[in-house]
Amino acid sequence: MPRELTAVCLGGPRAELGETPRVDSRTGKLLWTDITGGFVHVGGVVGDSFELERTLAVEGMAGPVTPLPGEGAGWVMARESELVHLAQDGTRSVLAEPEANRPTAFNDGVADTEGNLWVGSMSRNGAAGQGRLWRFDSSGHGTVALGGIGISNGLDFTADGRSAYYVDTSARTLRHFDIDPRTGIQGSTTLVSFAPETGDPDGLVVDNDGCIWVALWDGWAVHRYSPKGELLDVVQVPAARPTAVALVGNLLVITSCSGWLDEGWEQESPDAGKLFGVNVAVSGPSARPYRGPLKISLQNDQEKKR
Fold it and tell me: Any idea which residues are catalytic in this one (predicted)?
């Protein structure tokens, strides 16, 4: 039987769509976004509460934030259809527009163990198969690693860089990728298929034991799976829509959504949109940095259309 745990509210700003929590290894600070609000929040977890230090407004849909090497170097951020450099003071510079002129927006992504950046997109209009998963390598060249995606969501890599776990929310699956660190995806298998009553798989993180924590939108829970797909832990979350997860030491930090809740759910989850946490007795790595240049080139138009 899986272990049962219960998360508690850590506080923080109430996000309409909280997402993509990350620990910046340069500072130890937690970053997370309000996608539709257009904010990046920075702070720290002290005891059983989150202490907000500052909020950066990005004037657009706030996608995942990935650190750059070096103190004070800022972050690479996916915003709307763009990749931008986000400086420490909130200044933004557009690096590339991989999803320009398409009915899509970036949603989630991380860097792998080699410093390549992976970022996935989703349809803005609910149409199937319009999302793509991009890979920006350490030379700054961007290619589409996977197409035909509904909602590109949680992604993380194992410590050796040879495996990745990935969620396409529309397909309701957690997939395992075989990874060649130099070239990308070499094979794919479905590890877990989620029943509708479980909720929709959303963001994820791989812990230092190689197990996968998956947030379940509309599921009031986070599940932990072994690399073989066995359900190990169930974390009950007092919010209907957990969205993504990060490990801050042994604390599993969970973002959530306060928008578009079904009738009655707002009363049942008054802290929806804030951060939640639970001690899970296992740790995970900080966010890996993108190690490529800020001058980014994209594959040619013919390749992009596949």
Answer: 202
Residue position matching structure tokens 């349809």: 123
Q: Cα–Cα–Cα angle for 204, 56, 165, nearest 5°?
A: 15
In whole angstroms, what is the distance from residue 204 CA to residue 43 CA?
20
SS3 302: helix
For the segment 141-163, the average pLDDT, to the nearest whole number, is 97
Q: Tell me, yes or no, if 233 is annotated catalytic.
A: no
Phi-psi region of 72 (alpha: psi -120 to 50; beta: other; left: phi over 0): left
153 annotated to a ligand binding site: yes
Active-site pick, 112, 202, 207, 218: 202
pLDDT at 262: 85
Annotated ligand binding at 300? The verdict is no
19 is in an annotated binding site: yes
Distance from C-alpha of 135 to C-alpha of 107, rounded to nearest angstrom = 14
CA distance 7 to 150: 29
**Does 168 appear as a known binding residue?**
no
- Give me the residue label for tokens 């070239």: 183
Domains, the chain, ordered by start: 3-304 (2.120.10.30)
pTM: 0.96
